[in-house]
Backbone:
């Protein structure tokens, strides 16, 4: 699904000139079709996440589709929360992350690691304020029907070339069965991470129960809107 400049402007709540400036000056990926820009929704979500721009959750999904898509709390329950991971570089940290993922059969851990590293080489997945969301342009699709998110806390902060210059100590990583689930979870998580109270809890860091309770409370807030 490709979006027009007007579509992006409406979604984000800015004027079309701002979107054109993002494309021409700030690196928002787009291609021209019939002399008009078209923006891939995956590229929009990745670019906005890296820039700290809020994309309202569920903007790409119809209401009936949302009933079948996982919540962040459900996916995190499957992927797990892990503390005190060692590492002194993005590669060594991501290797530790991959080793703790409950990967579906047929998804080679070494291939997944190199795929994540290749994505980092294209541009940092750091969200800002010490948080990164390692993922790839094409979602990590495994032979599974369920999505999972792992949350990993590093022993020592690592330089992920974040735009704000802050080293990263908190990593969220996705394994999803399809593109819709990947986009849905990425937009949901990015939206949740704009809550300052939640970020403070992550940096403490909170216990598994505290983190899960905070996510569920924020998801309830979104549902009520």
Residues:
């Amino acid at each position: 699904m490709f979006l027009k400049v007007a579509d992006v402007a409406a979604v984000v709540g800015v004027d079309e000139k701002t979107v054109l400036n993002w494309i021409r000056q700030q690196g928002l990926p787009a291609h021209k079709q019939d002399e008009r820009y078209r923006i891939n929704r995956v590229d929009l979500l990745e670019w906005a996440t890296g820039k700290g721009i809020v994309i309202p959750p569920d903007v790409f999904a119809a209401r009936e589709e949302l009933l079948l898509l996982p919540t962040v709390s459900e996916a995190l329950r499957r992927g797990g929360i892990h503390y005190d991971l060692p590492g002194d570089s993005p590669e060594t940290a991501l290797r530790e992350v991959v080793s703790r993922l409950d990967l579906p059969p047929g998804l080679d851990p070494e291939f997944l690691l190199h795929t994540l590293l290749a994505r980092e080489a294209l541009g940092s997945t750091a969200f800002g304020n010490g948080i990164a969301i390692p993922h790839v342009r094409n979602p990590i699709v495994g032979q599974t029907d369920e999505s999972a998110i792992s949350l990993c806390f590093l022993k020592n902060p690592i330089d992920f070339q974040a735009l704000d210059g802050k080293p990263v100590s908190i990593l969220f990583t996705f394994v999803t069965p399809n593109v819709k689930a990947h986009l849905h979870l990425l937009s949901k998580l990015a939206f949740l991470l704009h809550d300052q109270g939640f970020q403070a809890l992550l940096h403490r860091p909170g216990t598994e129960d505290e983190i899960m309770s905070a996510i569920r409370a924020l998801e309830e807030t979104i549902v009520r809107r």
In short: Residues 62-67 have pLDDT under 50 and may be disordered.
